[in-house]
Amino acid sequence: MGTISRRTFFKGMILASAAALTACAGPGGVRRGQPAPAGADADPRPLPIPPLYEGELDGTDGTTRRFELTAQEGEYEIVPGHTTKTWGFNGAWLGPTLLMRRGEHIEMTVRNEVPEPTVVHWHGLHLPAAADGGPALMFPPGESWTPSWDVDQPAATCWYHPHPHETSALHAYRGLAGAIIVADEGPETIDFPSDYGVDDIPVIITDAKFTADYQLDETIDPTYGLLGDTPLVNGITRPRFEASRRVLRLRLVNGATMRFHHLELGVPFQVIATDQGVLSGPALVDGILLSPGERAEILVYLEPGKDLTLRSTGVPDGGGLPREEAANGFGLRDTFDLLQIAVPETLEGSGEGEEGKLVWDIHSEEPSAEGVPEREWRLNGFQINEQSMDMARVDAVIDHSGPELWHVINENADWPHNFHIHNARFRVHDIQDGEIAFRDGWHDTITIPPRSRVSLLVVFGQYPDPTLAYMFHCHMLFHEDEGMMGQFVIVEPGQEPALDHPNH
Ligand code: C2O
Ligand code: CU
Ligand code: CU
């Protein structure tokens, strides 16, 4: 695979105005019109279902689950009839779906058999910083890393992907990504479909662009990063899923490095969970926006004989970007057919009618925002609060166990951003000067529309450790790699951070 040729060109630059941002697009930076996805004219292929990897349960107490993941090189037929060099976990391309249950202890071994240093982050999990897989923990080819943690959070769809310093986008783009199912008693008592691969389906949305000989084009655009023109679901173009049951649960993961997706099915569907777990009750919607890194679980009620298509229909209102050119450049107006769902005349569980829709009502305790510590993070260009990521700097010290109110502001008029916090869950508390159509539930990643101020009520996992930081960042991975990331530490009351970052 090629090496990285861009970099530091725009580093440290503060992009304050639309004019500056336009200048940044540079030659070739502005794409026009609808991209032509590779393989768009080929016949659909069956949707690959990543293997469900439940690890090895420890014989002695049965509550320890051991996993072994190897990041490796391989080849895969992403586009029919063409072989592409790829990376994957325990296989050529992407990774297995990891299953873990609340209350279990996880012992993970990650082997690095790719030719570059990397590290794996468990996006959405609450765990000690030493297991979180931030950039300070990257490790060289040929070595292993063995984080361990206890699963102590409600059921959710999470995911894992690399987080090496300044090359996260490239490593994810090459294929290092997979889903995590956190299972928990609570939501499982709601009768959600949960037959993996049958009526409970991971839908991992990524994208690629290809060179003339169908290798991954690793050209990093100075404005749009690795935005691919060819959408992939579970790693292939034009997938088709054959449904067999009336109610289908899709675990939607936006694993794209830069792309926002507004997803529709042409019929209303129920949102049952956001990033951090099940909603307090069902929400019926016509579409949902997932920014890079976000997840949602949805239930689709199939009508016998009526095929459906999961489509990316373009971000409403061009994502709030006033200039058409910028909205197009970021792909916010692109539309794609992502996944065909073939629905036979006879479905198991048929005949329940509309009333067959699941309902539930979970009473969840809401933290209060009253009097909690507040912080402000201003996103601008590739920086946060006029600073680039520095692995030696601590941007926030959290020395209490309560929630905090984080005000995240997108100062750019012409750039979308989003915001992700490690080891945390948050509610969207307030939005000013912008709109987030669906804001219910617990999140760990959320879109921050241009010029808006989004206030998040954040609850952190409690694993005090003054020596290692957690990250918060824009999850457009090119922005993260360019420095749009900060660090926080969780410490005991009164404790001072004392970062230990051996590699840097
Ligand atoms: Cu999914 Cu810090 O990332
Ligand atoms: Cu994360
Ligand atoms: Cu960003």
Automatic annotation (TrEMBL):
<dbReference type="InterPro" id="IPR008972">
    <property type="entry name" value="Cupredoxin"/>
</dbReference>
<dbReference type="InterPro" id="IPR011706">
    <property type="entry name" value="Cu-oxidase_C"/>
</dbReference>
<dbReference type="Pfam" id="PF07731">
    <property type="entry name" value="Cu-oxidase_2"/>
</dbReference>
<keyword id="KW-0560">Oxidoreductase</keyword>
<dbReference type="GO" id="GO:0016491">
    <property type="term" value="F:oxidoreductase activity"/>
</dbReference>
<protein>
    <recommendedName>
        <fullName>Multicopper oxidase CueO</fullName>
        <ecNumber>1.16.3.4</ecNumber>
    </recommendedName>
</protein>
<dbReference type="InterPro" id="IPR006311">
    <property type="entry name" value="TAT_signal"/>
</dbReference>
<dbReference type="InterPro" id="IPR002355">
    <property type="entry name" value="Cu_oxidase_Cu_BS"/>
</dbReference>
<feature type="domain" description="Plastocyanin-like">
    <location>
        <begin position="72"/>
        <end position="185"/>
    </location>
</feature>
<dbReference type="Pfam" id="PF07732">
    <property type="entry name" value="Cu-oxidase_3"/>
</dbReference>
<dbReference type="GO" id="GO:0005507">
    <property type="term" value="F:copper ion binding"/>
</dbReference>
<feature type="signal peptide">
    <location>
        <begin position="1"/>
        <end position="25"/>
    </location>
</feature>
<feature type="domain" description="Plastocyanin-like">
    <location>
        <begin position="378"/>
        <end position="491"/>
    </location>
</feature>
<comment type="similarity">
    <text>Belongs to the multicopper oxidase family.</text>
</comment>
<comment type="subunit">
    <text>Monomer.</text>
</comment>
<dbReference type="InterPro" id="IPR045087">
    <property type="entry name" value="Cu-oxidase_fam"/>
</dbReference>
<dbReference type="InterPro" id="IPR011707">
    <property type="entry name" value="Cu-oxidase-like_N"/>
</dbReference>
<keyword id="KW-0732">Signal</keyword>
<keyword id="KW-0479">Metal-binding</keyword>
